[in-house]
Every structure is written in C-alpha cells, then in structure tokens.
C-alpha cells in the first residue's frame, strides 16, 4: 500500500476505520469506530487546545431533529447526512453533545469574527444586558453612538453616517431604497452569481435561481460576472465592466439608481472579482447618475487581511457600504454607512427600526472592533490566510479534483471539478469529501451555484497549526475519492 506523509500527519495502519488512537487525538468522547472502505487512513493530529467544555445534559440530536421537522420551516436544511448537534464553542473550535472537538473553518458563514464566545465580547454583552437590554432609539443611550463613531472611523472618505439594522438583508434593502430616493431612478445593476439577501428587493438583486422564488422582481439588471476562473474574459476586469455600460444603454433609460456588488462573492463560491473591475464599473455607473453600493456582509471586518474592507482591495470608495455577520461576532446586527448628503433622503418620511441599534448589539459591535485592533486580527488574517492559501495551492498541484483555489485572507474558496479542462462541477464529490472531513474533525462550508466549492471562512484567530490540520484533513479526504 502507498504511504504518504504530510506536514502534521502520519499514516496509521487501519483497515476499514479510524483507530482508537485517532479518535483520542481528534477529541472524541467515544470509542466507536468510523467505517471506511479505504485500506489506510491518514491520522492528522488536531492542534492542542487547553480547554474542556462543561458536560451536556440536553436533548439528543434525534430529539432536536424531530422537533425541528415538526415545528420549524420545512425550507430549513442542514449539512451532513447525520447533522451535528453543536452545543459549545470556544474561539476557533466547536464541541458537539458528546464533547467532541471540531476545528471550525466556516465561522457560522463568515460570522464569527473574533472567535466563539470571545471573553471580551461576552463581557460587553453581559454587562450591557445587566444595565439596559432595550429602550428604543427614541431615547438617548451612549452604546449606539459610541459604536457608530468607532465604525465610521474605519471607513474612508465621507462615509460617516450609520444606520443600524438586524441583518445583512435588511441593510441591503435599506441601501437600495436610499439609492432610489437619492437618484430618483429605479433601475439597479447587480452581478450574476451574486447573493444580497432573501427579502423582496434583495432577492431581485441576487443572481442565482436557487435563491429566488417565483415572485415579481422588476427593475434589476444582472451584469456578466467578472469571474477569473469561469468568466469569458478571464482576469480582465475592464472587459467585464463594458457589459455594465451596455446594460445601461440597452436595458434602462440611460440613468440608474445604483450598482451593487460584493468584492468577493461569498454565497456564490468565494469568487474574487477580476482586477480592475470595480474602478471601471463604478466610473460607468456614476456617469449614469447612479450610486455605488458595496456589500461587505461577508468580506468586511478585516476578513480579507490586506484591508479592513473588501472593496479596498480594488482601490475604490463606494457611496454606500452595507455590513453584517462579522460586525457582531454572532449577535443579530447589520449596518448601512453612507455620506451625510445621501443620508438626508430618509428625512423625507419617517424611517424607524425597532431593534436596529439596540444597546446590547451595539455594545457587542464595539467590543468586536476593539478585539480586532487589540489582537491584531487583520494582520493575523493576512499572515495565516496567505499561508493557508499556499498550502491549498499545494493540494491543487497534488489532486486533479481541485480546479481552483481563490480568495484573500481568511475568505478562501476551493472549487472541485471532475475534469479540469471542462471545469465539470464535482458536486457529489464535494459532499462526500465534506463528510469525510467532518469525521476527522474539520468543519467547512459549501457554496457556489453548483454546490462544488468549499467555503473556508474561519474565525480570524485561526492559527498556522489550524491551517496545517485543515489542509492535511482535506488531503486525506481527497485521497479517498
């Protein structure tokens, strides 16, 4: 049998299952073996983590799943054939009801920014909850103003007026409405393969049929996606941007309300827009009287490492920026930041959000900003993310199933294909590998329109040791295909 040795792993002679030693190293609280058809199984060592969660005494996974099927929306889905019952989290790790530890390389869909249950964020939430949990913005409270001031200081130019919401969808809905009011136009341009939310207007701007219901969606035009891997113009951003100009001339009155895009598409499969695209597209849209909206729901808050915001990687300054997810490390919080001039449009009528800007969530948001700075998480995202991307590129050189490795910082994607030349999506193989990785203690996300992209968006406290473990586990799982 072939013997393969990786950086932090050794092959262990084991027929049809992980050995007891493997389970011990992976943090399992059980001696049950995992059945496997391979002759040999790699045994990566999970990085040491000096923490044990308290015992879990709650309902079983089967009991929870039965209630979920009986009382929650049938549209809800879960990862894995046997869904995980996660009950505890600490920094970059999650624990199931049996006390087994998992390396979280998904971060609750790029949401857990500082780390699970980061003590500084927890303390801010608890202290604010003890003082005042809710009052509405009809009264004064310093939590919202302190956070708004700190958040505005992280944005360039005249982006200094903040509106708080409860989610990214809400933030994008508000941003689009403001653009329409400010310009007096109604046409919106977004990108194919984009995802901006699942409410009325944001569903229209989303460019994937799997996220769109058969409801009336008007006034949105989807430009050709500047995808360096699958796009017709490769990495030539300016050629893709020409389609925005063509859309304005052919599908609108010649004037538009806004252009909305992510700098790196998250749900779409971690697709980083072709270099030079946003400067050219922004210029065209502004000539047509439109505003430029940057959706930073997944790419923001230092995740790309090289910059605090994703759009900065393309050297542009938007007119409106939307954000959520990492802003609160897990609490329901979103925001829209724009200029004082554009913000004036909401004075034409009453605009109100009952929970937007509540003291508990904004206290958490301020704590997140302070942790990012104190623990230099942007620098860590850059250093560890660059290292991880290099190691993933090594996997691409080793495994034909890896078609593309892309992204920045700790916002990375690995696209799997069955044929590199034809770029045939390896959708079934992606699910299989994902299950194998879970069995060995690593959780990753899955995305892309074809469901064949691993989304790697861990907490920003991820270490090089974590990166090695993730890659070694992925290497092992791919070796079994």
Automatic annotation (TrEMBL):
Keywords: Photorespiration, Pyridoxal phosphate. GO terms for cellular component: mitochondrion. GO terms for molecular function: alanine-glyoxylate transaminase activity; pyridoxal phosphate binding. It catalyses: glyoxylate + L-alanine = glycine + pyruvate. GO terms for biological process: photorespiration. The keyword Transcription does not apply. It holds the Pfam family Aminotran_3. Belongs to the class-III pyridoxal-phosphate-dependent aminotransferase family. Its EC number is 2.6.1.44. The keyword Heme does not apply. This is alanine--glyoxylate transaminase. Its cofactor is pyridoxal 5'-phosphate.
């Amino acid at each position: 049998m072939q013997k393969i040795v990786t950086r932090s792993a050794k092959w262990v002679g084991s027929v049809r299952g992980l050995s007891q030693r493997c389970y011990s190293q992976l943090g399992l609280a059980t001696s049950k073996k995992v059945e496997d058809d391979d002759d040999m199984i790699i045994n990566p060592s999970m990085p040491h983590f000096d923490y044990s969660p308290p015992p879990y005494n709650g309902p079983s996974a089967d009991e929870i799943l039965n209630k979920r099927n009986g009382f929650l929306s049938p549209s809800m889905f879960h990862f894995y054939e046997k869904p995980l019952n996660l009950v505890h989290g600490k920094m970059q790790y999650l624990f199931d009801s049996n006390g087994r530890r998992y390396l979280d390389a998904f971060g609750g869909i790029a949401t857990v920014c500082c780390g699970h249950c980061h003590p500084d964020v927890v303390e801010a939430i608890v202290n604010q909850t003890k003082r005042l949990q809710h009052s509405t913005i009809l009264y004064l409270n310093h939590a919202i103003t302190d956070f708004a001031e700190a958040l505005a200081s992280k944005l360039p130019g005249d982006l200094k007026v903040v509106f708080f919401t409860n989610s990214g969808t809400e933030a994008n809905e508000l941003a689009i409405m403001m653009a329409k009011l400010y310009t007096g136009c109604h046409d919106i341009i977004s990108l194919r393969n984009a995802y901006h939310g699942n409410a009325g207007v944001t569903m229209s701007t989303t460019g994937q049929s799997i996220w769109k219901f058969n409801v009336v969606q008007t006034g949105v035009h989807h430009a050709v996606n500047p995808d360096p891997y699958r796009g017709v113009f490769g990495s030539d951003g300016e050629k893709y941007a020409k389609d925005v100009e063509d859309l304005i001339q052919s599908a609108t009155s010649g004037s538009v309300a806004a252009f909305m895009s992510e700098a790196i598409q998250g749900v779409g499969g971690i697709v980083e827009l072709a270099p030079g695209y946003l400067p050219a597209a922004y210029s065209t849209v502004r000539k047509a009287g439109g505003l430029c909206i940057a959706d930073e729901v997944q790419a923001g808050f230092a995740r790309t490492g090289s910059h605090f915001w994703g759009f900065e990687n393309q050297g542009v300054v938007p007119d409106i920026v939307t954000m959520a997810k990492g802003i609160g490390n897990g609490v329901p919080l979103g925001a829209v930041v724009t200029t004082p001039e554009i913000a004036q449009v909401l004075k034409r009528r009453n605009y109100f959000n009952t929970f937007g800007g509540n003291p508990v969530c904004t206290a958490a948001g301020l704590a997140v900003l302070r942790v990012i700075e104190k623990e230099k998480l942007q620098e860590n995202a850059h250093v560890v993310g660059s290292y991880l991307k290099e190691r993933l590129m090594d996997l691409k050189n080793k495994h034909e199933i890896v078609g593309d490795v892309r992204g920045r910082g700790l916002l990375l994607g690995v696209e799997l294909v069955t044929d590199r030349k034809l770029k045939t999506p390896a959708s079934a193989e992606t699910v299989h590998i994902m299950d194998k990785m879970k069995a060995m203690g690593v959780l990753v996300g899955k995305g892309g329109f074809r469901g064949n992209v691993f989304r790697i968006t861990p907490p920003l406290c991820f270490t090089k040791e974590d990166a090695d473990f993730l890659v070694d586990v992925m290497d092992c799982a791919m070796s079994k295909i």
